[in-house]
Amino acid sequence: MTRMGKLGIPSNASTSQASTIMSNTEAADAAAAPRRSQRDKRQVERFGSDNTKKRKRGEESDSDTPEPASESDDQDVEEEEEEEEEPRKAKPKRKTSSTPKTRLKPKAPPQKKPRIQKTAPAKIGPKATKRTRRPKAGDIAQPFDAEKLAKDTHISGDNPLFNAIVDSSANLQTTIEDFLESLTQSPEHALAELINSILRCCGCSNAVNSDQVTDYDGIVDVLEDMTEALKNDDSSVVYPMSSKLPMLKKFRKSLAEFFERLIFSSAESDQLYNTELMRCIQYWVTPMSSSQIRGFRHASTIIALEIQTALADVAASVEKEAEVVARQRKGERKRKGGAAGGSKELDAKANAIREKRTKVAEYLKDFVDGVFMLRYRDTDWAIRMECVHALGNWFQKHPSHFLDSTYLRYIGWVFSDENMHVRLEAVRALEDAYEQEDHISSLQSFTSRFKARIIQMATSDVDVSVRVSVIQVLRSIDRHGLLEDDQREKLCLLIYDEDPRIRKGVSGFVKGVWEDDVSERIAGKKLSDWEKRQAEVKSLASLLVKWGKALDKLTIREDSSEDEESSSKRMGGVASVMDPETKGRTALAVEALWDVIDPINDWEGLLDLLLLDHSAGVEEEEEQGPSTSSSPNGRTVVDAAWRLSEVEEAIALEIFTGSIRKAVGEAAAAKKGEDQVVSDVTRVLIKGLPRLFLKHQGDENRIADVLLLPSFMNLETYLDMRMITAYEHLWSDVTKQLLTHSSQTVLVPSVAAIQKFLSVTSLSNTNNAKILELEEELSTLLRDAIAGREELDIAAFTEDESLALGHICTRFAVLAKVRNLVPCLEEDEGGKQSSAYDIFTALADRGKLGYREEEAMVSETLNLLTMHIIWKTKSLPSQGTRSSDDKKAAQTLLEQRTALVQKLIDFAVGNQSNTTEAVKRVAFLNLMDLHILFSQKPEEGEEDDSPSLSLHLDEEVQFRCSEFVQKEISRFKDQLQESCPRAKGETDGSGAEESDEHAKKSKKAKPHAEEADRRKLPKTAADLQREHVFICVMLTFLRAIHGGAVHYKHCIPFLANYTRLIEPFDICSKTIADILRNEAILAEHSEEVCQVIIAALQDAYKLVLEGEESSKEPSVALAKLLATCFIIRGAQLSIVGKIDPKVVVNVHTTLLSWIGQYIATYEKSGNNKQRNVAAGFFKALLPLLPSIESRDALKIKAHMEQVLAQAKVKITPASKIWDAQRAYEKRLTTTMSKDKAFAPAKGRRRKRKDAEASSGAEEVETEPEPPAPTRPRPQPQRKSKRLEPEPEPTASSDQEGMGTDSDKLTDLEDEEEKMEREDEAGAEQGEPETPKATRKTGRSPTKGPSRTTTPSPSPSRKRPRVEGEDVEMNDIEPAPSPAPEQAQDPVVEEVVVRRKRLRA
């Protein structure tokens, strides 16, 4: 009876009722009591808005039409619902009752829950659906197994609430209703069950009882005990939300649904307000969210956030109900003669709602203050992301409360989070906030405060997805008119961004700006559809011109005096020279705006606008008149609403070209209707192209765009439509542009159009006639230009004649890239006149004169002669199948090629001092191209008596080419420094006033800042052109190395300047590293590659030693790059190939000797500053160590000690200058310790010394373990002592001993291997190891009596402790220093011991 009284059971209750209540209190399976959903329940008056879409889980709609959510139920369940529908319709107001059924165990599938009669007001929360899921075809539903869950997750499965969350087939709504009923009857036990379920969600198997759950003062102590227990449990690292088990795949979603339904159901039954439910959850979850255990912190934070989200929904429903009651009360007061009872009823209802609102507001504030404000800045980015995601949900659920600067500021602060997922979630939350049109006024303060940061994220965030999302937010902000004009323009510039996703994302924003401009342009005018479309094109063109100029100011440093026309030319000039077929920025903008701006799709309307004469306009007073009319001179007058300026007309032409390209490209990608689209384009261009050629032939930029149009046409349409004459006119228009223009901007697309014509075989007659006519005209122009002069190599030309010859050579060279001009060039009319080839050869000889006005002519002539050799070689049959005529042609070709190669060598790397730099560069490119093409030797069986065309570059010429590349790199480096002037006067005169540390920091930080600033600075057109030329030279030389024309040992200039120039150059250096790795490991040329690596590192660090570079970071980066040449890794970083370890040792020893010479020189001369710079080279040696083994580390360490001893430097432990050397030595020691044979001996070394001092060699023989190999001992103090001036003999003795370490190790390698085999044999026979106690007590490990030994004398210095070695008094206490003649090196000591063993 006492127990029943404590549980709140009435004394007059029956035995069955008491047993039912007690069983529910103990959270056991109720075998006798029916579920609450199956008994008569009190109808709870529900509250909330009518438009809510969420309902309790497990309930059905009253409508006859089935809800979509019920489609997930099984077919059998649906049939049962249909059978039960009729009796429920007969008595809709009667409460349902059914035969009591026993409650199911957690493992068993739930029974179907009968429907409950709904009340009129809408309910809170989501629509309730069953947790049963339709299995896929072939799948067998597996019942939930709590024991398997406990076994797999190490989490106890004794909690029914936790099991229901994990079980995907459980009915959560039924589980929650049973819990709330238990909460009414036995609150302490129900709350304990809930808190235990939260602990299970955190991965904790501990539990609290009914007394602990409400002891709020002891919660922290209980959680601390659980935390300490979990720290010692390795399995606690994995908790349900971090587990990858299939059964926990949907745990996160189920957990959110569970607590959401718990809050909704408790709010409907008022248990949320009149029980200890929320108070208990808050008191437990809040301290758990600050736990050191990630599982506690993560899971409890998510639970608190989900509860807060549900509370926000409840609060919003309460607010809406309060508004309804307020309107009812207001109407009641206005009504005259209203019943007083009705008013009192409304007042009581209003008071009840007010109390609910107050309590919900308290709950919201407590969770925000206790959980959110602390966890939104958690160290774990996943927890921070959950907080921001929840805040976005709160904005949607309860905007009137949360859309306030108090909460919005957290979003603004999170914009600076280092993790992109957190920033992305913040942007998405803000996007949802701006969709709340009714609360936009609450966002104005936030927008004005964080608008600059939002725009910065859109333009320069490192993550593209964040930028795209921010652009959508700014689009919402702009719809409300919260952006300034300059900010809108800055965002519109993203239409030219290099990333297509950014361009596509900003297209909607650009559309909004374009629509506003169109509205302003046509305001107050009555225009037809055609006229409106032309005005829209005019608006788009003007905006693109405006944005293009703004982009130029931001990205390109240009002269302020540059006018619009020159700016327009420069827009596409650089790109056209580099690659004319590459899409310009206007074409990229067209692709991004294709789907959002309709006039871009209407390429026919664009052509109509372009064909108008925009030079004719109307006066201001005539603007209200007709849109188009005829002027007195007969020209059509264009209305000002769509009249284009010169720059706008050029942009409109680019839009038209991009629209044609996009239309044809989409049709080709869809593979449906391609022929129709191309046919339509061709028919329109047949009529429009001649007029476009005639209109724009005077502007090279516009005519270049027009010349791109024939490539999108189906030229066979001319034959189908019998328009051969029109086709011939098209040929004439293209050749006219080729013959009248000399710029690469026009010549390259002209030749591309000619190549397109020649590819149409059905029009071959016309094509052959036209191309021969063009060749003849070019030859005539060439002969007319030389005007019968003889000895062209020394003849005098005026400046105009040189310019005209240069244009002719350029046309020939460009045409030779796509057309075989060998017959044209070698045509001499039977010897009556000089051939064009002879003329060009003579003109090429003028390169030795060095006239700057002729460098374009000579350069293009060299290109033409190279293409002549290539075309002539292509026409020859392969060796072994040549006829007599072919052999003669091959001999002639060989003679021509030999003369050309010699000419190229003289110009590029010869002694022709008068040759201009541009001619040298072109000669070098052609020289490399020829050797790349002819570097392959004929295969066996193909040789005949005809001359071989194989070409080999002499070693001397290769060295000259390498020097040429080095000069080009130096010249380009100087140009970069000129384009990025350094700030002067910052460090002048500060050496005596500043401290050493401050000076060192400033000098160290400055190179990095300069390098970063230089790469970020905007570039002029000249800078881009210069980079293009430089990279062409570097890539050509790289291709020669890769193709075998040049030996890879000449790649040192590439590697020595790694990370010092531009990014494309660094890519070339990485390719060189790949070549070296393949040569060293696959081709087994490790020795040669070793010499290249050594020379590259030496040259790279010489720049630092000689003062040309002040930063050591490029040398370290180069070492990291070259370290990849030692190992070839496969899948999962497995080692597939490895270089010979001897080569790696050779690299280290050679570099150590090299830097040791510098250190010794600077130390001898007293130049401490340069010595410190040289000491930094050890930092570059560190990346080369990972591929060495223990024995190699021993050799390298011995050599390093020898080098430093010979340099006579004093290394103090506290000196930061030698930090790199100490790190290098530590890495070597660590590598040596990985091998047991070289690991520091803990007890055997001292025992061996004691044995030698007492009984000599016999004691060594009785040792149970063979002596360990040479153990390297850190000797910084020995080095410093050796360099002291007093006493002089000691330093000499030590130095002499150190100088013989490597020789001794080399002489005894065979003996060491033999001793290691003996050691392994002894270990296999079970010989015991010397324990640590032997070293401390002098006791032998055998069972014989202990023997006292005399410790050997130790030096007076403190020997540094080696990792893994025990500290002893003899190691740290000073002792008398031995005489110089008695001091012996550890290596010599080991040698003596081993010789004694061998003699024994």
List keywords for this structure.
4 strands, 1% strand, 61 helices, two-stranded antiparallel sheet, mainly alpha, 1400 residues, disordered N terminus
The number of distinct helices, counting runs of at least 4 residues, comes to: 61
Query: Would you tell me the overall average pLDDT?
Result: 74
What is the global morphology? flat
What can be said about the biggest beta sheet? 2 strands, antiparallel
From the N-terminal CA to the C-terminal CA, the straight-line distance is: 94 Å
> In which order are the strands of the major sheet placed?
1-2
By DSSP, the count of extended strands is 4
* Structural Rg: 44 Å
Provide the β-strand percentage band. under 5%
- The poorly predicted ranges are 1-123, 126-141, 557-578, 618-634, 982-1009, 1242-1312, 1319-1400
Helix content: 55-70%
Structural class: mainly alpha
InterPro entries: ARM-like (IPR011989), ARM-type_fold (IPR016024), Cohesin_Scc3/SA (IPR039662), HEAT_SCC3-SA (IPR056396), SCD (IPR020839), STAG (IPR013721)
Biased composition (Low complexity): 1339-1351, 1380-1390
Biased composition (Pro residues): 1265-1275
Biased composition (Polar residues): 11-26
